[in-house]
Automatic annotation (TrEMBL):
Coiled coil: none annotated. Pfam families: OEP. This is TolC family protein. GO terms for molecular function: efflux transmembrane transporter activity. The lineage of its organism: Bacteria, Pseudomonadati, Pseudomonadota, Gammaproteobacteria, Cellvibrionales. Belongs to the outer membrane factor (OMF) (TC 1.B.17) family. Residues 394-420 are annotated as: Disordered.
Amino acid sequence: MPLSLNEALAYTLERHPELAQFSYRRRAAEARELQAALRPNPELAAEVENIGGSGRFAGTDSAEISLVLSQLIELGGKRDQRQEVARYRTDLVDSEYQQVRWQVLAETVRRFLGVAEAQEQIQLASLSLELAQESRETIRKRAQAGTASDASLQRSAILVTRAELAVDSAHQQLASARVALAAQWGESEPNFEQVHADLYQLVELPDFNQIRRQLENAPQLSRYITEKRLREAELQLAQTRGRQDLRIGVGVKQMQETDDHAFTLSLSMPIGVNDRNQGEVRARRAEYEQLALEEKATRVHLMARIQRLYQELEVFRSTATRLRGEALPSARAAFESIRRGYQEGLYSYLELVDAGRERLAVESDALKAAVNFHQTLVTLEQLTGTGLTGQWSLTPNSIDGATEPYEPQPRYIKEQAGES
């Protein structure tokens, strides 16, 4: 059975190594969320004073032993901001997955189309060989009748040989295209012989204004939403780190000389005279402002590229349609007329060869225009992040029988930590 596009996309979605790695990236991000939520560890300190000196402090009888337990109290909401940054970094993994998913599936469609094109090229090469063999047989009969030269017969034999080599080359190209497609789901040996695709089914294009409205769904732009929130959170975290933290300590002191005990209480806080994290705050603010410019540049670039792709689609569709509907029937009719006329001595050998080449050229140009149409349409749908025409199943939940290797998971790490 020929491989369908849905099967190729399902295999890719389930087995592509670049998609499979995102489940581990998500786990790593959730582990960092857990780490960001942890408070600083308390510190236990022991101190012995008044020993090893002179006079009554020569021994340990006058020693003072202190045991202090201290805790750093983070001020300014540092812990909450750390958690916020970690959460947005986890969300960024989800956004990156959606973008890579579109890229990987679009590449699978391109390689699928490459196999379909190679199959059609074999058909064209076989047709060229068939025409060359028929022409050689016609020339042989005329040569035997004395109405064609031996040179014409030899030239026709050369065309047959070249056509046979073209068939062999087309088969090699198909084999390479099959290997390239199977590599999308991690296989080095293709488990299929052919693919099922109608390259000449050219769908109607939606209005360009409709496509332009879909630009907001573009994976490249959607990622900026999450990244903008992350940059905001990083800026706020840098600002909170400029606030000094408070360290509180409580302890007990024992005086060996009098065998008395006393409690101690300590408070300490750095004086924010020099370092208030000014440099980091400025860096984060600059990165945040830079992101806005990056998004604007990306949006302009996408709009220009989408408009160019749409114009190319119209050209490719018109070219393929007119070649198959107008030029190809005329080329076929002209070739048949010249071939019959050649048998009757009305046309020369060169006219016969030119007519055959013209027919094959129209067939080849129509195929190339159709393939270019589909390749361009796939790129357009990848950029907009939508199924504009329904021709290719790249949108979520449109691939039957596929299980995605990665989905946003519940924050099970925190739950496990709480249970333990």
